Amino acid sequence: MKNIRNIPVKRKIVFIFLIFLFILFILFAISFLYAIFSHSMGENQEGISGYFCEIVFRIFISLVIFIVLAINYFIKEKPRSIIIWWICAIVAFFGVFYLIRAWIFDFSYINAPKVVKLNYITFERDNIYEYSIVYSLIGYTEKGDTEIFRINSETYDLEKEKWTDDEFVSAYVQYLPHTGVLMNLKTFKENK
């Protein structure tokens, strides 16, 4: 390893900046740990809190990608590995862009979310994950497309008590189109 005095000043500044970003990342991760954990346990899936948790999760994943790339930049074993690093950086850039753009585009829909009418809705609980529970609303649009929205555990319990499995239940769903966060749900029994 090189002596620290022989490292160029520019590289020292970049390294200090990365240490600063890493400390910010740790503070960010600790402060939003509750939001991420409650989101994975079926809470904070709907409304503004669901949108906020979606933002936190997407930024957290983006920061993890950025930090892994930054650390790998400084741990190069061979000069040829920089080519692989650049390929990974380009792929990561498009991945992070895709993660971030969804909640930025949905910001304009907060006050006026999209509305869809769903027929034959069902409420599902998915326990296949070890530490994560996913509650879902599944229904069919007028065109016959299947729509799936994540819901809170309270909404799941309330709607399961309200409707039996054999009833023809429909719903008006207000949602954010890019992240798929459900903003409002109104269920009703459809007369055949």
Number of helices: 5
Overall pLDDT, averaged?
A: 84
The major β-sheet equals: 5 strands, antiparallel
Q: What series of H and E elements makes up the topology? A: HHHHEEEHEE
Report the helical percentage: 40-55%
Structural class: alpha+beta
| Strand fraction | 15-25%
Radius of gyration from the alpha-carbon trace, in angstroms:
22 Å
N- and C-termini, Cα separation: 77 Å
What is the β-strand count? 5
Tally of domains? 2
Task: Break the fold down into its secondary structure elements and pairings.
Layout: H1 9-31, H2 33-40, H3 47-74, H4 81-106, E1 114-126, E2 134-140, E3 146-151, H5 153-162, E4 169-175, E5 182-189
Antiparallel strand pairs: 1-2, 1-4, 2-3, 4-5
Structure description:
The chain has helices at residues 9-31, 33-40, 47-74, 81-106, 153-162, and strands at residues 114-126, 134-140, 146-151, 169-175, 182-189. By secondary structure, it is α+β, with helices and mostly antiparallel strands. The protein has 2 domains: 4-108; 114-189, Beta Barrel (OB fold (Dihydrolipoamide Acetyltransferase, E2P)), CATH 2.40.50. A hairpin with a 7-residue loop joins β1 (114-126) and β2. The termini are far apart. The relative contact order is 0.14. This is Magnesium-transporting ATPase (P-type). Keywords: Membrane, Transmembrane, Transmembrane helix. It comes from Peptoniphilus koenoeneniae. The chain crosses the membrane at residues 12-35, 55-75, 82-104.
Keywords for this entry:
5-stranded antiparallel sheet, alpha+beta, elongated, OB fold (Dihydrolipoamide Acetyltransferase, E2P), 2 domains, 49% helix, 192 residues
